[in-house]
Design goal:
The complex is a heterodimer of chains A (about 375) and B (about 300). With about 375 residues, chain A is α/β, with parallel strands linked by helices. Chain A has 13 helices and 14 strands. Helices cover about 35% and strands about 25% of the residues of chain A. In chain A, helix 4 crosses helix 5 and helix 4 packs parallel to helix 7. With about 300 residues, chain B is mostly helical. Helix content of chain B is about 70%, strand content about 0%. In chain B, about 45% of the residues are buried. Classes of the chains: A alpha/beta (about 375), B mainly alpha (about 300).
């Protein structure tokens, strides 16, 4: 771990047990990511690729039900340095028979307490999160301002209500909410979706967290508001240097805001490197999935060149019966005869093909 | 009379206006009448407990049995032992007030705890609690109360204990439903991610901000329920025992003279029961409509 690394996820596996199939749904299957201080890491992929589950695992929000997490999430800031998944595996017992998982017994209470203990000083204070659907992320019966001051008084050295209000108003102003004083005394229903998201961002940043996780922050907003929220995030990033993990399926947002990108497919990272290498159309040495993803962006240029809108053939990976070979093999259009055998049989690992750029594809390994 | 809107309308109930500007005239009239009844009940209770009565409710006057209402000194007449009806009516509320509050407290407290555990934790807890509430619900309430009376003694507190516990399932399912509905909106998850302690989330964000009107409504209905229950039991002879007056045993003892044309000893307490229960129900309904919104149901 270099000194500037804020978050280091190593081999994170988040599985959900399916009782009827007697198997695990492998939502996140061996993800390793690193976020440096001050950088923005974009995580991109289609629905069901495990983006959000990765974020929720980091926040310790996978508590209920048969969720099982293994791996290591190292978190390090000026104040705290710990593994967020410490001892978590001890609370789960697996019973297997004939290669099938017969039962997963989970000590839910112990798991919850352990998570609480690990996350107590981290949630909100060190890692803040903003969600999709901002309108439903605010308590409908509490004043917007009160919700922000509550967070401020909980996590910062400011403990009195008037001071907290000052700070909340400063931040509401900073996220360019229209007439902050008025909005402070509004209920969330009185705010538009974009305003709610601005209020959420103010609430998250007012406690000055070391890491901000934005889980699809623009989903559920219309296009003009989306671009304004993206502008705001870009501005906050350049002004304050907030370390961000940005999750989205919208490639344009990712390419605009992030320094590095991790492309996720079927619960694994398949392409990981600088944004300008991965998300630029000209650059050829990238994972076939990334290329296909870029080709399927519904942009005017794409449609003009081909005359139609290209989609990726096939369906998203079945994360219960994960095939033996490469996860993208069945949909890949760049398999050559030379490597076909290897693609079908063996799963490639994430290897560095250029400094700072890792790919999980046999095409580039010799 | 209970029709709750499980999914409250988003905007109508959330306006910044004070609640008395939000409701229909009808709802406000309901609430006004209900509050009047509640005030009368509280005043009667205080009068009774400080012994500020027109006459001694236990004073037997055999020279003035079954006096008509309007007799000098007895505005509501006397009963078959010459006791003053008005004083007995006022004292009668003593039988309900504290026991009724006990029943409400038990129902709300245990119902809320179980509802929060079932709704917030979910999973096995939810299944277990649902089985338990179904079990309690499936038992005929009157039979259960009679069993308790037979096993212990016909004490009003005993009865109200049972009334309270048999009301727990209603409150549990209400709170559980509300929390499950709230969980679909992800502000609870956002609260957790913000690092708020679980106690703050449950007590402040869920119960105080989102469930308080539900609980107030349930409390008013619980009082009506308690009075009605005691009346039924008294009529069967298992309620509050003579000579302590309660509206139920006043109706029961007066009923023998009803056919002789002497209607007042039973009619006065019967009307008192009617208007009081109506008051509590209308208060609950009015508050429900105003605070929770009319909804679609």
């Amino acid at each position: 771990m270099t000194t500037a690394t804020v978050l280091k996820i190593e081999d994170l596996r988040t599985y959900f047990y399916s009782r009827s199939k007697q198997a695990f749904i492998r939502s996140v299957d061996g993800v390793s990511l690193e976020i440096e201080k001050g950088e923005a890491l974009g995580v991109v992929g289609e629905s069901g690729s495990g983006k959000s589950i990765t974020a929720l695992s980091v926040m310790g929000l996978i508590s209920a039900g048969p969720g099982v997490i293994s791996g290591k999430i190292g978190f390090r800031s000026d104040r705290i340095r710990k593994n967020l998944l410490q001892d978590l595996e001890d609370f789960v017992k697996l019973t297997t028979r004939d290669g099938k998982i017969m039962e997963v017994s989970k000590d839910v209470v112990g798991w919850g307490q352990n998570t609480e203990r690990a996350m107590k000083k981290v949630r909100g204070k060190e890692i803040a999160m903003i969600f999709q659907n901002p309108k439903s992320s605010l308590n409908p019966f509490t004043l917007v301002g009160k919700q922000i001051t509550e967070a401020i008084r909980l996590h910062t050295s400011i403990k009195t209500e008037p001071e907290a209000k000052d700070r909340a108003l400063t931040w509401l102003d900073r996220v360019k909410i229209d007439s902050p004083r008025l909005r402070f005394d509004n209920y969330p229903y009185g705010l538009s979706g974009g305003m709610c998201q601005r209020a959420m961002i103010a609430m998250a940043l007012a406690c000055e967290p070391s890491l901000l996780i934005a889980d699809e922050p623009t989903t559920g907003l219309d296009a003009t508001i989306q671009s304004k929220i993206v502008d705001l995030l870009a501005e906050l990033k350049s002004e304050l240097g907030v370390t961000t993990m940005l999750i989205s399926h919208d490639i344009s947002i990712i390419s605009r805001l992030s320094d590095r990108v991790a492309v996720m497919y079927g619960g694994t990272v398949c392409d990981y490197g600088p944004t300008k290498e991965i998300l630029s159309t000209g650059f050829e040495s990238k994972h076939p999935y990334t290329s296909a993803l870029l080709a399927s962006i519904p942009s005017a240029q794409n449609i003009k060149e081909k005359g139609y809108l290209q989609a990726i053939e096939g369906e998203v990976l079945d994360t219960i019966n994960v095939p033996a070979g490469c996860r993208f093999y069945s949909r890949c259009n760049r398999v050559t005869e030379k490597i076909r055998e290897r693609c079908a049989r063996h799963e490639p690992d994430l290897r560095e093909i250029r400094s700072g750029h890792k790919v999980r594809c046999w095409l580039y390994f010799d | 009379m209970k029709h709750y809107s499980q999914m409250p309308g988003e905007i109508s109930e959330l306006s910044d206006q004070p609640f008395w500007k939000k409701g229909d005239a009808v709802d406000l009239a309901y609430v006004g009448y209900g509050l009047l009844i509640v005030t009368l009940v509280v005043v009667s209770y205080l009068l009774g407990s400080f012994n500020l009565l027109p006459r001694d409710p236990q004073e037997i006057n055999l020279g003035l049995m079954m006096a008509r209402p309007g007799t000098a000194g007895h505005p509501l007449g006397t009963d078959f032992m010459g006791r003053d009806m008005l004083s007995r009516l006022i004292v009668g509320i003593q039988a309900y007030f504290l026991p009724g509050l006990l029943a409400i407290f038990i129902a709300l407290f245990f119902g809320t705890v179980l509802g929060v555990v079932a709704g917030y934790r979910g999973g096995t807890f939810d299944t277990g609690i649902t089985y338990f509430t179904n079990l309690v619900d499936s038992f005929p309430r009157l039979v259960l109360i009679l069993l308790v009376i037979a096993a212990f003694k016909p004490d009003i507190y005993c009865i109200m204990l049972v009334v309270g516990f048999t009301n727990v399932p209603v409150v549990t399912s209400l709170i559980k439903g509300k929390i499950q509905f709230l969980k679909q909106k992800n502000f609870i998850e956002a609260d957790v991610a913000l690092g708020l302690p679980t106690s703050t989330i449950i007590l402040k964000h869920i119960l105080w901000h989102n469930c308080r009107s539900l609980l107030i409504i349930e409390a008013t209905l619980g009082m009506a329920e308690a009075i009605l229950m005691e009346t039924s039991l008294s009529y069967l002879g298992f309620g509050v025992q003579e000579p302590t007056p309660s509206w139920g045993n006043m109706v029961q003892s007066g009923a023998n003279y009803f056919m002789q044309g002497k209607f007042w000893p039973s009619t006065a307490p019967a009307l008192a029961i009617l208007f009081t229960i109506l008051g509590f129900h209308l208060l609950g309904d009015g508050l429900n409509n105003i605070l929770e919104g009319k909804g679609n149901t």
